[in-house]
Hints:
The protein is α/β, with parallel strands linked by helices.
Amino acid sequence: MLVDRARVKVVAGAGGNGCCAFRREKYVPRGGPSGGDGGDGGSVFFIADEQLTSLLDVKYHSFWKGERGQHGMGSDCHGWTGEDALVHLPAGTIVRDFKTQELLADLVEPGQRFLAGRGGRGGKGNARFVTSTNRAPRFAELGEPGEEREYLLELKVIAEVGVVGLPNAGKSTLLAASTAARPKIDNYPFTTLSPNLGVAMLSDHRTLTLADIPGIIEGASQGKGLGHDFLRHIERTKVLLFLIDLGDEDPVQTRDILENELAQHSSVFAERPRVYALNKADVPENRERFEALESAFGTARCISAATGEGVVALLEELWALVERLRREPEPAELEAEETEYTYEAPFTIERMPNGFRIEGRRAMQAAQMTAFDNDAAVRHFHNRLKRMGLFHALKRMGAEEGQTIAIGDVEFEYHPD
Length: 417
């Protein structure tokens, strides 16, 4: 069963809390703060796995969570880092943000990783906050919550040759004749209900990967039939093989229908090399038609997938085309793009009817890692915001005493220094 779409929610592990402790031992006067740091939370990674061919595993296991980091302990003992959650996906999976549909990653190479959820940072213990003026800090940071996100996963089968044609053109028969794949074959429309992959073994240990796509009918690009749902699986192919039944009423019109549906589905097919193969030459009247049709196709091969006639020569032609394209550098390799540094502001300020809302990773992190039931921790939080320049920015925006300042779920009143 091919599952090529899945919705996944990931929650990275929260960081462990820092510890507030003091060293008290006999014969050790003024031992001082000894609270250890909390461990970082485990992240969630998507990993391309060449052993998988479907999103079935994540379809029914759609929630993944990283392990929480261990809390810090006394005697300067730090907590351990939480274990990462590794989500294995078939190579060829596209990762999109579920809400915005933004393309985030394309996992093509086996072993390729994508950070789906970043683990929270462990809180610092009170031993980290010792200064010359504060020799005994009585607070520690809380662990930062892990990142929480939802993704839409889409699988696009990775094959070198995509076989397209109308229902009953003989695509599955060709795949079975040229590879070790054993797709279901029968004489009724839409025998192929999901893409099938096969690897053709040629001489001198050469290989060629073919994908058999469910039959395309006129209107498939508008959602008719089954081909529309699976046309995206041949977007990655290097070469398109048009397999046309010589017994069709008008094989030239059949070619035009296929070309039109591919063009309407995506512009990526316009530059793909094409090979035309007219199938079912084992029927005597079909063989006679081929001579009259050959000029209309320019170059086309007459084959019989059922008997194997012409299949080897067709595979050799496909392999030569694919091998030439393999040697051509990818566009990304022609000119390396320079990585631009982007500045991330520590906070942004948005006006509200009764005050201001603060956004930004550093400001949010400071609020999430503060224990507001501890006066010392609140003072430390205030000093962090002051060092960021937040209060100076609020003053410039005309903030008045008593207005509400919101940072995430935390709200407090503004009082100018």
